[in-house]
Amino acid sequence: MSVKQKHLLSKAQQSLVAKDYSRAGALFEELATLTPNAHQAWFGLGEVALGIGQQDTAATFFNHAVELQPKNAHYHQKLGETLGKLGQTGPALQQLLAARQIAPKDTGILCSLSGAYVKAGNWQHARRVLEDVVRLPHPLAAYYCLLGLACQHLGEPDEALKAFNRATKLAPRYPDSWLSLGHLYIEKQDMDKAGACLKKLQALAPDTVSTFDLMGELAWAQGNNREAASFYRQAADSAPDDRNIQAKLVINLILCGEAIAAIDTMDHLLALGMDEDWILERLGALFAIKNWTPMARESLEMAVERNPDNLSAWNTLLIVLTKGGESEKIRKAADAVLEKDPDNIHALMNLSTWYNDQGRHDEALELLARARVRDPNHRGTYSKALWAMVSASSISAADILKLAQTFDERIFRAKFRGNAFASRNRDPERRLRIGWLSSDMRNHPVAAFIWPFLEHIDREKLETFIYYNFSEEDDITRRIKPHAQQWRAVIGIGDDGLADLIEGDEIDILIDLNGFTDGTRCDVVARKPAPIQVTWLGFPGTSGMSAMDYIFIPPDPVLEKGGWSLETPWPLPDCYGVRADISNAAILPGLPCERESLPFTFACLNHFRKASEHTIELWSRILLQCPQSRLILVAIGGKDDETIRYFSSKFERHGVNPEQLEFRGYIAKLKYYESYSEIDLGLDPFPFNGGTTGYDSIWMGVPFVTWPGEHLSARMGKAILENVGLHELVASSADDYVNIAVALANDFERLKRLRANLRERMIASPLLDGPRMARSLEDAFRGMWQRWCETKPLDDRRSKQ
């Protein structure tokens, strides 16, 4: 470029900065005429076109600049951003990905790319890009806020909390950090912390739309709808075109009885050009956030009725219907989404849940496989699949292990820190520090297996650290807490921070009690912050994680020989776990069929999702051989006529009379225990046996028949029955399972002998012996520790990989 051309370019760029678009356009056009290959001129013309609102023209100019200078990342970025504004999502992503390839560490490009993914509805990809952004040197608080919003949208509030907390630490005077954190705390129903965030925000940015919005949100969450409406009015006065503020104002006006004002505000939204389905979708989403399920469902159903192509409304409706257990409507909503977008990952996952709840495990797994093709790194597709696999009769233990290992390879393995703990004191007899990592130290089935032994742990041998990953405490939490020498509330701590904390506490053995359940901190476990790591109770199978050393199992030769888990199985000497305080419900004398003059009653009070196809086949054989008997089952949608017809059809195809079946929906706790007084004999599902339900059944005096399989969740029933002397109810084959059940249904005296003093036998057994379990765990931890001490100090456990 000549000196004259450079001077011309400089004057054009100065005019552009000064927003003198007319002069800038003329100068860039002159340069392009003189030098048609001057890419700067064409890019400048694109900037001018943007400045005067001509986005189509701008895209044409930017595209020409890219053709002339294809290695200029900024040109690709600008073209991608402009195409995005024009609604051309695919081409926009293509350009931004090209920009990223040229400049992979440019934060501006990465943020633009994440924004494009958001517009495309792909929050998972947006999140991954933002994770790359915050890994760059000196990330801004704003980037952590964006990452938190992505996590929040993906339904991962714990991850969002970590990101927002990081933002507040990086820039305590950045208002958006406190705003985002405040909204999240309201979602988590922690009003005290939300109020503290609001005070910070008010000090930094008083009288702004965002501050009034958070004030309204907090008042709304506390049930002060009139006060909330007042705050939203103030926000709306400052931002009359903000649709979300107007939608929130509408709801609170409705709730505080100001119907006329609500209608006026709705009219204002329509006047802003908002489609009625958008308004209804926003109302439905806001109702859903507040857990007002009926109002959310009604609004969202009206939204999709007004506009059947509103995929966002359909997906939100799917979530609401799933929470409400409206089985058939879930299927129809998912089908509606997939008809328009066959690879919509949210619809695929929601529909897989629907299939799984109906015991249609193979169909659920097929959908999740499709979802993994769409996004091979979406962790939800793996964890949901593993839960479906442990219930499916068509799946082998090897299949489960293979997918779990793939999950590790895709998601967890790269997080491994490689700490060999060379400086750790290897005295094999010293006092050990034991860390328990869980979100469930509260009114939760896992806690019911923890507190009975925790108070009996020998403090001279073991020092107990509990890392509690939940925002609330209850009576059970307060019962457990005194038995921990160190109690760490870790809900707001990031994965690296928590791993650092565990390493800093010099935990010798870390027990993960979540596995792939809500509240999991698998990403922390993957970092291997302790020399020895054990999985127990949460997910009833292998984690597949190369960072996990052991898995606790009941004493069982099949499980002990391994092959079904990546972890080394460690058998506890008596049983898998201990329970206490199950229920004070009385056991009524005799058999229910005789006492109440009812048909002989089989039952399975486990969720119907555990009823595999093979299970239903064997249950059907039992009912056919006992035609005067009935079978009680529990299922989501168990009171819905269409759902009951479907469940019944699964038995009818085997020749069962549907009048022998009784389906029940959700059972409240007291009614659940009372239900055992109706049951003569329980039937354990397979391959996913009852765990908690098995303990409950024995406690309530109801024996059950089980058929053990080849992995942990398939051998729970056996471990329970053998501890109360009911070895004869453990079948050796499918035919044996049927024969045992049929024989007992025709031999009341034998069944009465089996039922006699069953609760007393359980009380005397290891199943309820907390002190005995404490000694077993002390011995297990000592054995693990001695084995580790025998290894060379620089041995790296990652050799398993």
Word description of this protein:
The protein has 801 residues and is an alpha/beta fold. It starts with a helix and ends in a 12-residue tail after the last helix. The relative contact order is 0.05.
Task: Count the E strands.
Answer: 12
What is the average per-residue confidence, as pLDDT, rounded to a whole number?
A: 91
| Spatial shape | globular
The gyration radius over C-alpha positions equals: 31 Å
User: Total number of helical segments?
Assistant: 40
Which regions contain 5 or more consecutive residues with pLDDT less than 50? 795-801
Strand order of the largest sheet: 3-2-1-4-5-6-7
β-strand amount: 5-15%
Largest beta-sheet characterization: 7 strands, parallel
Helical percent range?
55-70%
Give a short synopsis of this structure.
It contains 40 helices and twelve strands. With 801 residues, the chain is of the alpha/beta class. Residues 795-801 have low confidence and may be disordered.
Task: Tell me the layout of helices and strands.
Blueprint: H1 3-17, H2 21-34, H3 39-51, H4 55-68, H5 73-85, H6 89-102, H7 107-119, H8 123-135, H9 141-153, H10 157-170, H11 175-187, H12 191-204, H13 209-221, H14 225-238, H15 243-255, H16 259-271, H17 276-289, H18 293-306, H19 311-324, H20 327-340, H21 345-357, H22 361-374, H23 379-389, H24 397-412, E1 432-438, H25 445-448, H26 451-454, E2 462-468, H27 475-480, E3 486-489, H28 495-504, E4 509-512, H29 522-526, E5 532-535, E6 550-553, H30 557-560, E7 568-571, H31 592-595, E8 601-607, H32 613-625, E9 630-634, H33 641-652, E10 661-664, H34 669-675, E11 681-683, H35 692-699, E12 704-705, H36 716-723, H37 734-745, H38 748-755, H39 758-763, H40 770-789
Parallel strand pairs: 1-2, 1-4, 2-3, 4-5, 5-6, 6-7, 8-9, 8-11, 9-10, 11-12
